[in-house]
Write a structure and sequence with these properties.
The protein is of the alpha+beta class and 504 residues long. It contains 12 helices and 16 strands. The mean pLDDT is 83. It comes from Castellaniella hirudinis.
């Protein structure tokens, strides 16, 4: 079954909506993951910053333990710190007296020593942060020791910011994930200076001594929003559900159409039967006339037979009895024909000869035509005209056309009707032509509409029902323009052979 364009369009729109929802959901999921990982990274950096504070406190205690610091112990503790905490790669104890020697894990430039002294003298107890001159990605933590106005030293830790964020987790090594660490004044220390994508900026590390700014970001591309395998699975699932739902809906729609068509067919069958019964009532007088002749003949022959029997003329009596039997059969045939006309039958689409339909209509309407003074000329071909339809329905349609023609010319001088049956172009064509007044132009458009009639007391159902019966077998019933005055109705239905050859 070919899908209709609207179904394919709806399917495409549904797939686009599914793709859009998938992209939004994936982007939101990635943003939530970035938020979680950024929070975890902030907690890790805050923990490491707290370790820096603890190291400064321990080193300050060693430096303040005596009037002169124990150089050996200080250097041993400093070496241990730099060994186990590689991000701390420089420890310096700078006396505020510029003449005293500097103790540290490495040489210290004089100008940097002066800056450390200045920061220690200016301290009010808080740890000072400053960039580490000459070392990229580094910053200095400066604390006075002891942490009082009578401080004698400036204690400094050199922190490698790149190692500070190192080993933060596998998430931060994924493609497209970026982070940046900056000094409180915004000077960059590590990572990209301006992460792009889904950015979480301005997150300050939870440390009073090192309020570094952590910026995180994620470059989200279409491959991230629409991962191939999940996207293909989603589209397949959406397509399966859509076509399954559409198939179920179509099945229900077809079932409703079939049920409605069955209801209409039942109504039409009852209407056709009612129409035949109504026509039978109209033909009651014709039936009386038809039966009068054979009954009168039977009565006369019975009386003659009694006389012959009384006189002993046996040979002549046999002929009289044969005549009575023939007349009785004639009366029985008349009754059977009218009984078949009035009795409902199951529909049939077997092939039958349409000439029989014309002959039955001729027999049924002959009394009415005779009583109305109408002459009907029937013309049928010598060969069978086979059609595949219900014989009773076709007989009713032809009956309605001929009866209407009789009523149209009734009471006119020289009232004539011509009924012509012929095969033509793969169809059986039945023309009913009368010499009556014709059909008025103002009712032609509604001629085959139910309840449209020009006859007083008529119901206006005959032509509408006849057209419906003919169209149900792919036929046509129309009023055509004939060469003579009057009305010409044409019924054309496919021949049985033409129907079988039709691929549709």
């Amino acid at each position: 079954m070919r899908a209709r364009p609207w179904a394919i369009l709806a399917w495409g729109l549904l797939l686009l909506l599914a793709i859009g929802a998938m992209a939004l959901w994936q982007q939101r999921s990635l943003a939530q993951e970035l938020e979680r990982e950024s929070g975890a990274l902030n907690r890790l950096l805050s923990q490491r910053a707290g370790q820096h504070d603890a190291h400064l406190t321990a080193l300050s205690a060693i430096a303040s333990a005596s009037a002169e610091p124990e150089r050996e112990l200080f250097l041993e503790v400093a070496s241990t710190i730099t060994h186990f905490y590689p991000r701390i790669d420089d420890v310096q104890l700078v006396p505020l007296d510029a003449q005293a020697p500097v103790i540290g894990t490495g040489p210290l430039a004089p100008d940097l020593a002066d800056r450390i002294r200045a920061a220690a003298r200016a301290s009010t107890g808080d740890i000072a942060l400053m960039p580490y001159p000459g070392r990229a990605h580094h910053y200095l933590m400066v604390k006075r020791s002891p942490n009082t106005p009578a401080a004698r030293y400036g204690l400094a830790l050199g922190i490698n910011a790149e190692k500070l964020v190192d080993e933060a987790g596998a998430f931060w090594h994924r493609p497209g994930v970026v982070l940046a660490l900056a000094m409180p004044d915004g000077r960059p220390l590590a990572g990209q200076s301006h992460p792009s994508g889904v950015v979480r900026s301005g997150r300050v590390i939870d440390s009073a001594s090192q309020p570094l700014i952590l910026e995180t970001g994620l470059n989200v591309g279409w491959a991230d929003r629409l991962p191939p395998a999940p996207t293909a699975l989603l589209l397949a699932l959406v397509s399966l559900l859509y076509w399954a739902a559409l198939g179920a809906w179509r099945q229900r729609a077809r079932a409703r159409v079939v049920a409605e068509q069955a209801r209409i067919n039942a109504l039409e069958s009852r209407l056709a039967h009612a129409s035949r019964v109504n026509a039978l009532g109209e033909m009651a007088s014709g039936l009386t006339h038809e039966l009068t002749q054979p009954l009168t003949a039977i009565l006369a022959q019975a009386q003659a037979g009694r006389r012959l029997a009384a006189s002993g003329q046996g040979a002549a009596l046999e002929s009289v009895l044969d005549g009575m039997i023939a007349q009785a059969r004639r009366a029985s045939a008349i009754l059977d024909r009218f009984r078949d006309w009035s009795r409902p039958r199951p529909p049939s689409n077997a092939a039958f000869d349409l000439r029989e339909t014309v002959r039955n209509v001729q027999a049924l309407l002959a009394p009415k035509a005779a009583s109305s003074g109408v002459r009907i000329e029937f013309s049928v071909p010598g060969d069978p005209v086979l059609v595949r339809a219900d014989p009773v329905e076709m007989e009713q349609a032809a009956f309605n056309l001929v009866r209407n023609a009789i009523e149209a010319v009734e009471g006119r001088a020289d009232a004539r009707i011509a009924v012509d049956l012929r095969p033509q172009g793969g169809r059986a064509v039945l023309d009913v032509v009368d010499n009556g007044p014709g059909v008025a132009p103002d009712i032609r458009a509604d001629l085959f509409t139910p309840f449209a009639t020009t006859r007083e007391g008529g119901m206006g159902l005959g032509l509408a029902l006849s057209r419906r019966l003919v169209e149900r077998i792919d036929g046509d019933l129309d009023l055509i323009d004939g060469p003579n005055p009057g009305a010409t109705f044409r019924m054309a239905i496919p021949l049985a052979g033409a129907q079988e050859e039709d691929p549709s």
